[in-house]
Amino acid sequence: MSAAATATTKVAPAAVPQPAARPGVPRHVGIIMDGNGRWATARGLPRAMGHKAGAEAARRAVEAAGEAGIGWLTLFAFSSENWQRPAEEVRDLTALMRHYLATEVDRLAKEGVRLRIIGERDRFGPETVRAIARAEQVTAGGTRLNLTVALSYGGRAEIAAAAREIARRAAAGTLDPETVDERLFEGFLGTAGMPDPDLIIRTSGEKRISNFLLWQAAYAEFVFQDVLWPDYGAPHLEAALGDFARRERRYGARAA
Ligand code: IPE
Ligand code: IPE
Ligand code: MG
């Protein structure tokens, strides 16, 4: 399903649970989980082993985020551009995602985690699409942590899909172009109904956004950590949260 197709069912701000953030704790954290390949190479292992260890780190991060009182966690697991990698690596990553969905979903549901997938899920094929739909269904009642996994996700593709759907409706006469503003536009993104990320973390020492949550990150704070993703754990998340708590967010206005 394209982001726009997903968004059409979400335009009205639905009853999305909005867990209250604790003071100084970001409501929504996004993580660009980078460095699996380098982690494996450094150990003389195949890259697939790095991705497997990366999935373990994702499990730890979900647990640590819940314990830290974060209400929304978005993990960047596979970008629109990652399709350019060798077929073997794409196949390994897809298999790993399917395994994660099959083995983790019941535990997530039990722990009050609501799972959503954003991105062009159709590109993974019908079997994965079904597994994703089932996972979203089984975890739909979770209110402790909203976990979003970005799969075949690209910020530019998401924005283009929103523009396409808005143009379609305008052409069909069901949407007045004069009503298009930031709030309306947001409703057509895959993230419709979610709060914007307050903090975006990227591991592995790279300092770029790589097409993650482009629209949504307008006023996010960024923390870059030198750790490779498979080594990530609760202490790294705590350090990033500590850094975030010391930032002054002004949103273009002035401190009093
Ligand atoms: C992140 O690790 C996982 C994905 C992008 C799918 P990488 O595979 O990018 O690891 P490096 O950057 O090559 O070390
Ligand atoms: C970004 O990492 C995408 C994910 C973490 C899923 P990449 O490794 O694909 O990004 P670049 O190529 O270094 O920018
Ligand atoms: Mg990388």
Q: Could you explain the architecture of this structure?
A:
The protein has about 260 residues and is an alpha/beta fold. It has a single domain (about 30-245), classed as Decaprenyl diphosphate synthase-like (Undecaprenyl pyrophosphate synthetase, 3-Layer(aba) Sandwich). The chain has helices spanning about 5-10, 35-40, 45-70, 85-110, 125-140, 155-170, 180-185, 235-245, and strands at about 30, 70-80, 115-120, 145-155, 200, 220-225. A six-stranded parallel beta sheet has the order 3-4-2-1-5-6, sandwiched between helices. Helix 5 links the parallel strand 3 (about 115-120) and strand 4 (about 145-155). Helix 2 (about 35-40) packs across helix 3 (about 45-70) and helix 4 packs parallel to helix 5. The chain is globular and about 55 Å long. The termini are far apart. Residues about 1-15 have low confidence and may be disordered. It binds 3-methylbut-3-enyl trihydrogen diphosphate (2 copies) and magnesium ion (MG).
Kindly list the characteristics that best describe this protein.
256 residues; 6 strands; 8 helices; Undecaprenyl pyrophosphate synthetase; binds magnesium ion
In short, what is this structure?
This protein is α/β, with parallel strands linked by helices and 256 residues long. 42% of the residues lie in helices and 14% in strands.
Shape: globular
Largest sheet: 6 strands, parallel
**Corresponding CATH architecture:** 3-Layer(aba) Sandwich
Total beta-strand segments: 6
CATH superfamily: Decaprenyl diphosphate synthase-like
Compute the separation of the termini in Å: 46 Å
Rg, please? 18 Å
Major β-sheet strand ordering: 3-4-2-1-5-6
* Uncertain stretches: 1-14
Helical stretch tally = 8
Mean pLDDT: 93
Q: Return the string of H and E elements.
A: HEHHEHEHEHHEEH
CATH class category: Alpha Beta
Residue share in β-strands? 5-15%
* CATH fold category name: Undecaprenyl pyrophosphate synthetase
* Ligand identities: 3-methylbut-3-enyl trihydrogen diphosphate, magnesium ion
The helix content, as a percent range, equals 40-55%
How many domains, in number, for the residues? 1
Structural class: alpha/beta
Function: Catalyzes the condensation of isopentenyl diphosphate (IPP) with allylic pyrophosphates generating different type of terpenoids.
Keywords: Magnesium, Metal-binding, Transferase
Protein name: Isoprenyl transferase
EC number: 2.5.1.-
